[in-house]
Amino acid sequence: MTEERRRRQFTYEARAEFLTETFKLARAGRSDGVQHFIFADETPEAGGQGSAPTALAYLTAALGL
Q1: Dist CA 41 CA 19 (whole Å)
Q2: What global pTM score does this model have?
Q3: Residue 56's pLDDT band (boundaries 50, 70, 90)?
Q4: Number of folded domains that form the chain
């Protein structure tokens, strides 16, 4: 017995920019237009304000998901 599998194909795009020396904005989304805005900041010890998770924190969370 053979089982037919369907494949899904989707494309994500991301753009990032520095808003200040330590505060960053990333826009990530699918090719169908759905976008998410992600802010990242450094800790006060690293010269940031600590107003958002660090980029490393996002990466760590993504690997855990």
Answers
A1: 10
A2: 0.76
A3: very high
A4: 1
